[in-house]
Structure formats: C-alpha cells, structure tokens
Design brief:
Blueprint: H1 3-7, E1 11-16, H2 27-31, E2 37-41, H3 59-73, E3 80-85, H4 87-101, E4 111-115, H5 134-143, H6 149-152, H7 155-174, E5 187-192, H8 199-202, E6 213-217, H9 229-241
Parallel strand pairs: 1-2, 1-3, 3-4, 4-5, 5-6
Helix pairs in contact: 3-4
C-alpha cells in the first residue's frame, strides 16, 4: 500500500480468529469494509502462516501474542478497534479489560466487536476434548458449520485441520473468567446467531462493559461470517465511520 493510500485510513480494525481458525477467515470481510478502515488480520502461533510455531497453551499467552501483534502494526496517528470471533472474543475481552484496568489511556481501542460467543459470565467451551471422541468432535464441528464433511474423508487433511482446533480447545478448557475486575468503559457490538448462541446467552455482555452494547443477529450457525460478511461489514462501517 502506498503512502497516499495509507493516509486515507481513518481507523484500524484488528481481527482475532476463532479456535482452529487463521487470518484467512476474515479475508472476505476485509474486502467489503470501507476503504477508510485499515483491516489487520491477526494470526495465532501454530496457525496459518505461523504454522511452524508452537501453539499457545493458555488464553494469557494468546492475549499477550495478540497484544504484541497489535503494537507492532499500530498506526499512532489513527485510532483502532478490535473484532474477536468466538475464541477471539475471549482473547479480545481479556486484552481490553487488561488495558482498561491498567488505565493505559490512548492504548485502549475506541470500539470492540465480539462475535459468536456467549457472555463470558455464562461461558462454557463447546467442545470438551477430555470427554469427546474424535468422531464426536468432528460431528460437533459439522453441526456448527465449521468443517466441510469432504475434509473428513481424507485422513491426512483431517489431521491437519484438527490439530489447531484441538490445541485451541485445550486452551479453552482451562479458561476461567475473572468476575472481579472492573468493566472496560468501551462501546461494544455483539454479532450472534440465535441458532448458535441465543439472545439469552449473549445478553449479559451488557453487564461486562461500562458503555453501550448493541446486538446484531445474523445467520444460522456459529460460522455466520462465511455467509454474512457483507452484513457484518455494513455494521462495522456504520459504527466506525458513522456512514
């Protein structure tokens, strides 16, 4: 991107993936954002282009890695926001909660978007690796809309696909939400699918932010970003740019 194009950007949007996902899951969304939004697609260690790195083993490690990626890619002359999808919502909330509780001022994002995750006060991981067989895990992923059944017919591709999923759900099984910290004073937008996480499950996000919290229902399953990236982009453009 040349400098003149770079100067047209008004805000950055850092996108944090779901369990087992990589930055490519946000590609269609990023292409439909307004040109004034600088979308930065983040990657977890062990995933995608960072596949040779060791997986993180805790939410704390993921949070610190995402924080480092944001700091490296931040443009100091414009504000920034964060979008977290599913597990990315947990990482995002933990990060902004830390920033706010540390009173880092300008280091805090202007807005956060949390997708496909119940309020953390009600959180339970969807997949319990210690209690489910590989077949049950695969069936669960299919029901969530997260895997093409054709992948499962090739054992090699199935193993490659499931490795980061299993690594991330090991992280999620260990995660425990700390209810004792004060809420971030940030505005938040929640994207959810009623068939995946009902409004009853997401409504309590209102009590985890000291700011306005708006809800947007989309799609028929957990991975609604795949079919509804345009609708998501329209909301993000409107919220970030007031258009």
């Amino acid at each position: 991107m040349n400098e003149s194009k770079d100067l047209e950007k008004k805000i950055q949007l850092f996108c944090v993936p779901f369990a087992g996902g990589n930055r490519a899951v946000f590609r269609n969304l990023s292409l439909q954002l307004n040109d004034e939004v600088d979308a930065v697609l983040l990657e977890y260690p062990g995933h995608g282009v960072r596949s040779k790195e060791a997986f993180c083993t805790t939410i704390e490690e993921l949070k610190e890695d995402v924080k480092k990626q944001i700091n490296i890619n931040r443009k100091e002359n414009i504000p920034y926001s964060i979008l977290g999808y599913s597990m990315g919502s947990i990482v995002t909330y933990e990060l902004v909660s830390d920033l706010w509780n540390a009173e880092n001022g300008s280091e805090v994002p202007t807005h956060v978007f949390l997708c496909a995750n119940e309020a953390l006060s009600n959180y339970n991981p969807r997949i319990n690796l210690s209690e489910m067989t590989k077949d049950e895990i695969q069936k669960k992923l299919i029901s969530m809309g997260g895997i093409d059944e054709r992948i499962l017919k090739d054992q090699r591709f199935s193993r490659i696909f499931l490795r980061p999923v299993e690594a991330d759900y090991q992280v999620l099984e260990k995660y425990s939400f700390n209810k004792d910290r004060r809420n971030p004073k940030l505005d938040c937008s929640i994207f959810y699918s009623e068939n995946d996480t009902s409004f009853d499950q997401v409504e309590d996000w209102r009590n985890l932010f000291d700011g306005s919290v708006d809800f947007y229902e989309l799609g028929e399953n957990h991975f609604f970003i795949r079919e509804h990236s345009e609708e998501m982009a329209n909301v993000i453009n409107r919220v970030l740019l007031n258009i």
